TrEMBL record:
Xref: CDD domains: ASADH_C_bac_euk_like, VcASADH2_like_N
InterPro entries named in the record: Asp_semialdehyde_DH_beta, NAD(P)-bd_dom_sf, Semialdehyde_DH_NAD-bd, Semialdhyde_DH_dimer_dom
Coiled coil segments of this chain: none
Protein name in UniProt: Aspartate-semialdehyde dehydrogenase
A Pfam family the protein falls into: Semialdhyde_dh
Reactions catalysed according to its record: L-aspartate 4-semialdehyde + phosphate + NADP(+) = 4-phospho-L-aspartate + NADPH + H(+)
Matches recorded under SMART domains: Semialdhyde_dh (SM00859)
Subunit organization: Homodimer.
Organism: Streptosporangium roseum (strain ATCC 12428 / DSM 43021 / JCM 3005 / KCTC 9067 / NCIMB 10171 / NRRL 2505 / NI 9100)
Family: Belongs to the aspartate-semialdehyde dehydrogenase family.
Semialdehyde dehydrogenase NAD-binding domain location: 4-119
GO biological process terms on file: diaminopimelate biosynthetic process; isoleucine biosynthetic process; lysine biosynthetic process via diaminopimelate; methionine biosynthetic process; threonine biosynthetic process
Superkingdom as given in the UniProt entry: Bacteria
Length: 353
C-alpha cells in the first residue's frame, strides 16, 4: 500500500521546497497532509497538483499517518516528533533535537541508507545543511581512502536562517544599492542600514550585504558556534568514524541559497586528484566541475535550485600527499534539507511496497 505522508512546517522556507520536491519526484505516497502552526492553518497550498488546506498541528493530525517529515524549530520537534512516533508514524526530523541521540539514526541516503532501518524510537534525523553540503562527496572518498581529518571553512547562504534570512539580505541590498561610496569606510554599511532599515530585526549579528560574518548558530563552550560543533559531531556519526578529527569555521556570506565549503580532507593513504575525480565522478548525486583553466568550478549562483553536490578546485595539498583541498557547493534548501528528508522518506515508503 502507499503510505500516508504528513509535512509538518509546510509553510516555511524548507517546507516550500519540500512541496516542490514531493510534487516532482516519483509519487510513492497515498494521502498527503500539510501541517503547520495555528497561525498558518487554513491556508491553501499546492502539492502534487492538488490544493490542500493546511491543518493545525494537533496530536490527532497524526492519526493514520505513516511518515511525518518535520521541518520546524528544535523546541517544536522536541514536543511533536515523539507525539507522531507514538501515534505510529515514522518521524523524519530536520531539527537538531534528536540528531546525536544514539537511538536515532542520522541518515544521508548516499552514505548510510541501511541506518534508516534501525530506528528504535521511530525517529530518523536528517543532518544540518552545512554537514550535508559535503557528505555525498566525502562519503564516496571515505569509502575508498579512509578519511582521518577534516578542516572546513563554510560560506553559508542566508536562507539557512529561513525566510527571515533571505528577506534580510534582500532588504540590505536594496538599502545599499546605487550608493557607490558605501563600503569604503569602517562602519559606513552599518550606518546606511541603520538609517534606511531602522531597528528592523536581523537574524545575523552584523550586516550581511557587502560583508561576510564569521558566525552561524548559537554560542557554545570555548567560543565555538553551534554550526561548527554540529559539523564535527554529525560528520562523525554519518560516516561512522568516532575519532574523525574535525575543525570548522562557519561564515555567513551574501548568497541567498546554496552553502559552499572549502574542505581540507586528510585520508589514511596518499590520494591524487585523478583518484578523487574518478571516485567523485562515479558517485551518485555528485557532479565534478573542475577545470579552472577554463573557469569551471562550482559557484552558488550556478548551482542553486539543483539537487547534486558539486565539487571543484580539487588539489592534492602541496605539503600533505594524503590530503585533498576541494570546494563543494550544495543547495542548502534542497539536498541540505528538503531533498535529503524526501529521500529518507522514500527509503521508508519502500518498506510499505
Ligand atoms: C544555517 N545550517 O545555515 C543552518 C540552518 N540549519 O543557518
Amino acid at each position: 500500500r502507499r503510505p500516508t505522508l504528513a509535512l509538518i512546517g509546510a509553510t516555511g522556507a524548507v517546507g516550500t521546497v519540500m512541496r516542490d520536491i514531493i510534487s516532482t519526484r516519483e509519487d510513492v505516497y497515498g494521502e498527503i497532509k500539510l501541517v503547520a502552526s495555528a497561525r498558518s492553518a487554513g491556508k491553501i497550498l499546492r502539492v502534487r497538483g492538488e490544493d490542500l488546506v493546511v491543518q493545525e498541528l494537533t496530536p490527532e493530525v497524526f492519526d493514520g499517518v505513516d511518515i511525518a517529515i518535520f521541518d520546524v524549530p528544535d523546541e517544536v520537534s522536541a514536543v511533536w516528533v515523539p507525539v507522531a512516533a507514538e501515534r505510529g508514524a515514522v518521524a523524519i526530523d530536520k531539527s537538531g533535537t534528536f540528531r546525536m541521540n544514539p537511538e536515532v539514526p542520522l541518515v544521508v541516503p548516499e552514505v548510510n541508507p541501511e541506518a534508516a532501518r534501525n530506528r528504535p524510537l521511530g525517529v530518523i534525523s536528517t543532518p544540518n545543511c552545512t554537514t550535508l553540503s559535503m557528505m555525498a562527496a566525502m562519503g564516496a572518498l571515505h569509502e575508498q581512502y579512509n578519511l582521518r581529518e577534516l578542516v572546513v571553512a563554510s560560506y553559508q547562504a542566508v536562507s539557512g536562517a529561513g525566510v527571515a534570512g533571505s528577506a534580510r539580505l534582500y532588504d540590505e541590498v536594496e538599502a545599499l544599492a546605487g550608493d557607490r561610496t558605501v563600503g569604503q569606510t569602517a562602519g559606513d554599511v552599518r550606518k546606511v542600514l541603520q538609517n534606511k532599515l531602522g531597528e528592523a530585526e536581523s537574524p545575523f549579528p552584523a550586516p550581511v550585504a557587502f560583508n561576510v560574518v564569521p558566525w552561524a548558530g548559537s554560542l557554545k563552550d570555548g567560543g565555538w558556534a553551534s554550526e561548527e560543533i554540529k559539523l564535527r559531531n554529525e560528520s562523525r556519526k554519518i560516516l561512522g568514524i568516532d575519532d574523525l578529527k574535525v575543525s570548522a569555521t562557519c561564515v555567513r556570506v551574501p548568497v541567498i541559497t546554496t552553502h559552499s565549503l572549502a574542505v581540507h580532507a586528510t585520508f589514511e593513504r596518499e590520494i591524487t586528484v585523478a583518484d578523487a575525480h574518478r571516485i567523485l565522478e562515479a558517485a551518485p548525486s555528485v557532479v565534478v566541475m573542475d577545470d579552472p583553466a577554463n573557469g569551471v568550478f562550482p559557484t552558488p549562483a550556478d548551482v542553486v535550485g539543483t539537487d547534486p553536490t558539486y565539487v571543484g578546485r580539487v588539489r592534492q595539498a602541496l605539503d600533505f600527499p594524503n590530503t585533498l583541498d576541494l570546494f563543494v557547493c550544495g543547495d542548502n534548501l534542497r539536498k541540505g534539507a528538503a531533498l535529503n528528508a524526501a529521500e529518507i522518506a522514500e527509503l521508508v515508503a519502500a518498506e510499505f511496497a
